[in-house]
Amino acid sequence: MKKDDTPVQYAVQDGVATISIDRPAQRNALSIAICERLLDLWDEVERDDAVRVIILTSADCGVFSAGMDLKEAAKVRADSGKDMLQMLRDPFHQRMRKVSKPIIAAMTGHFTAGGMVLAANSDIRVGLRDTLGGISEAKVGRGSPWGVPMLWMLPQPFMMELMLTGEMHPIERFHQLGFVNYVEATPDAVRERAMAIARTIADNAPLTVWAAKKSIGAAMDLGCERGLEAACQYHERVYSSADAIEGPRAFAEKRAPRWIGA
Questions:
Q1: What are 34-81's pLDDT values in tens digits?
Q2: CA 20 to 30 Å from 26, out of 108, 189, 226, 261?
Q3: Cβ-based neighbour number of residue 252 at 10 Å
């Protein structure tokens, strides 16, 4: 297990990496330092064979993330004449979408703007009861091109409402529409649910988990027919693996499987 003392805390234990944004006094707003650290961490979890699944969360303050640190953005503009996004290597967190391991968002508060980006780029979402989510860029003159993939997660009329009005909506509505998997009563319950899901995933055959995530992503990118073709190609690696032999053998011998990821 390891931790660091930056505004983004990072720890790995029993196959689960936990990434936590730690700026409660600023409502976990995304500073340049945080965005750059997150980008480095997506590369780190990808390289680390000990990591099977990632939980993304933040310090308790009632807000999962308020999005871009607008105070810092104003200072960057005043000092350099540049938009803050120009200072970032990955302004829309696209590297996160390419992580091959599952990412679970444990959202212990409201989520909007960049907080919504982080939620949308996760694979499974657990939220807190009586919180709100939205895409607030229209209210502050910013943009949300990153919202396009959400058309595969939410109905088009609701996406239009989110992006055009900038209004916040109850998390229960996101849950009803399938964007949020679970809604829990307390921040601790949110994290506990996320960890339970993560441990289940970490115990499963890693190649099967990898192929499942790749297949769903391919279907979103390519459409049904070509996505199915891509999924079959990804699963060739699964069916030809030693784990494909180990799973049925362990079942027959009534023991837990010993996965090697190959």
A1: 999 999 999 999 999 999 999 999 999 999 999 889 899 899 999 999
A2: 189
A3: 8
216-245 per-position pLDDT tens digit: 999 999 999 999 999 999 999 999 999 999
pTM more than 0.85: yes
Give me the number of domains the chain comprises.
2
Helix or strand run (H / E) with residue 128: strand 124-128
- Phi first, then psi, for residue 70 (nearest 5°) are -70, -30
Q: Residue-wise over 210-235: b if at least 16 C-beta within 10 A, else e?
A: bbbbbbebbbeeeeeeebeebbeebb
**CA 41 from centre of chain:** 13
Q: pLDDT digits over 150-201, tens only? A: 999 999 999 999 999 999 999 999 999 999 999 999 999 999 999 999 999 9
Helices (H) and strands (E) counted in the chain, each on its own, are 10, 10
Look at residues 133, 135, 199 and name the one whose alpha carbon lies nearest to residue 165.
Answer: 135
Please provide residue 248's backbone torsions phi and psi, each rounded to the nearest 5 degrees.
Answer: -60, -35
Q: How far apart are CA 221 and CA 58, in angstroms?
A: 29
Q: State the CATH number of the domain containing residue 116.
A: 3.90.226.10
Q: Would residue 258 count as lying in a domain?
A: no
Range of the domain at 56: 8-203
Evaluate whether residue 259 is within a structural domain.
no
**C-alpha to C-alpha distances, 217 to 112, 220, 226, 233, nearest whole angstrom:** 23, 5, 12, 13
